[in-house]
Design a protein that fits this description.
Strand order of the largest sheet: 1-5-6-3-2-4
CATH superfamily of the largest domain: CheC-like
Number of strands: 10
CATH architecture of the largest domain: 3-Layer(aba) Sandwich
Helix content: 25-40%
Oligomer: single chain
Radius of gyration: 39 Å
Distance between the termini: 114 Å
Structural class: alpha+beta
Order of helices and strands: HHHEHEEHHEEEHHEHEEE
Length: 343
C-alpha cells in the first residue's frame, strides 16, 4: 500500500537532495522505497528555480543541416518575385497567350530529396551558371510541357493528360521556352552578379543528369505557371556550394539601386549613344502639281521646284530639321556644307 508523505518528510527529502553527500542524512528505514511524490506537493521555491533554469532542446537534423542563411533566402525570394513578373510578360508574347508565373516558395533541401519529389519521366535540364562553378537544374513537368507544345504548334493548349514520353522534336520546342526563361534569369540576376544561365543538356529521366551529390544542400525555387485553364509547376535547383562565393552579394538590398554608380552609368549611356546610327537627310523643297500634270509627266520633262540654287537646304536628323546647309559636289558626289545649327 502506497504511503503519502507528510510535509516534514518532503522537506527532509529536498534538504537531502540539495545538501552535500558527506552531510546527507539517512532516510528512515520504513521509507527506503517511498511512493511517488505528487508534483503538487513539492512545488516549493527551490523546485521552481531549478525548473526555470532548464534549457530547451532544439531539434537538429545532421543529415540536413541549415547551411543557407535566412537573409540569403529572403533576397532570393525578392529576386525571383521580380523574375516572375518579367517572365510572365515574355512568355505571354512568346506563346501568344496570357501567361501568369507565380513564385510558390524558396527553400533549402538536399539534392536527393529534390530528385525524389520529381515525376519520372519529366523534362529535366542541366543549366550552366558561368562564371560560377557547378551546374543548376531546371525541371518542367510533362503535364505542363505538352500544353506548351500544343500552343507552340498552333493549338489551344487544352490537351488531355498524356502518359507517353516526350519526343526529340517536342524536346526542341520546349527548349525554346526554356531559353526564354533563362534569358529573364540572366537579366534579373544582373544586380547581384553577372551569371550566364545557359542550357547544357536535356533528359527525360532526372537520374541521367547528375548535377550534385545526393546529400549536397541545394536551393529549390518552385514556380507555378498558369496558361488559361492549364496549371503546372517548374523547379529551379541551384547547389548552395555554387553560390557560396557570392553569398555576401545577397546581404545587400537588391531592391534598392546601389549608390555611387551614377557617373559610371552616365558614361555607359553616352558611350552607347555615340555608337548609335541616326538617319540624316538633306532634301530640296518640293512643289505642288495637279493630278493632270502628274499624269502627263514623261521622260525628259523638267519639274521646277520652289527652292532656288542660292537658297540653303535644311538637314533633317531622324526626321526633324536641325541644321542649315548649302549644296555642293565633293568627289563627284552630291553633298551639303553645314552653315548653322537650328535652335
Amino acid at each position: 500500500m502506497n504511503k503519502i508523505l507528510s510535509q516534514d518528510e518532503v522537506d527532509a527529502l529536498l534538504k537531502s537532495v540539495n545538501a552535500p553527500d558527506s552531510g546527507a542524512p539517512n532516510p528512515p528505514a520504513e521509507e527506503t522505497n517511498p511512493a511517488p511524490v505528487p508534483p503538487s506537493s513539492i512545488s516549493g521555491p527551490q523546485t521552481r528555480r531549478r525548473a526555470g533554469n532548464t534549457k530547451r532542446a532544439t531539434v537538429y537534423n545532421f543529415r540536413r543541416p541549415d547551411r543557407v542563411p535566412k537573409t540569403m533566402l529572403r533576397s532570393l525570394q525578392l529576386l525571383h518575385d521580380k523574375f516572375c513578373s518579367n517572365v510572365s510578360s515574355s512568355l505571354s508574347a512568346y506563346l501568344r497567350a496570357i501567361t501568369e508565373v507565380t513564385l510558390l516558395s524558396v527553400e533549402q533541401t538536399s539534392y536527393n530529396e529534390f530528385l525524389l519529389s520529381l515525376s519520372d519521366p519529366t523534362c529535366y535540364n542541366a543549366i550552366t551558371i558561368k562564371p560560377l562553378t557547378g551546374m543548376a537544374a531546371f525541371e518542367m513537368n510533362l503535364d505542363m510541357a505538352f500544353p506548351l507544345i500544343d500552343r507552340l504548334l498552333g493549338g489551344t493548349g487544352n490537351t488531355p493528360k498524356l502518359t507517353r514520353n516526350i519526343t526529340d522534336i517536342e524536346k526542341l520546342l520546349i527548349q525554346g521556352v526554356i531559353k526564354v526563361i533563362l534569358g529573364n534569369l540572366n537579366e534579373v540576376w544582373a544586380p547581384v552578379t553577372s551569371v550566364d544561365f545557359h542550357l547544357h543538356a536535356s533528359e527525360t529521366r532526372p537520374q541521367l543528369l547528375q548535377i550534385a551529390a545526393a546529400n549536397e544542400i541545394v536551393i529549390l525555387i518552385i514556380l507555378e505557371v498558369r496558361i488559361g485553364d492549364v496549371r503546372g509547376n517548374m523547379h529551379l535547383c541551384i547547389p548552395f556550394a555554387a553560390l557560396e562565393p557570392i553569398e555576401a552579394n545577397f546581404e545587400q538590398d537588391i531592391g534598392v539601386r546601389r549608390k555611387g554608380n551614377q557617373v559610371a552609368d552616365l558614361k555607359q549611356i553616352v558611350k552607347a549613344l555615340n555608337r548609335t546610327t541616326i538617319p540624316v537627310t538633306a532634301e530640296l523643297t518640293g512643289t505642288a502639281v495637279t493630278v493632270r500634270e502628274l499624269l502627263s509627266l514623261k521622260a525628259g520633262d523638267v519639274l521646277r521646284l520652289d527652292s532656288k540654287l542660292a537658297e540653303s537646304l535644311s538637314v533633317h536628323v531622324a526626321g526633324s530639321p536641325r541644321f542649315e546647309s548649302q549644296p555642293l559636289i565633293n568627289d563627284s558626289q552630291k553633298a551639303v556644307r553645314v552653315v548653322e545649327a537650328l535652335p
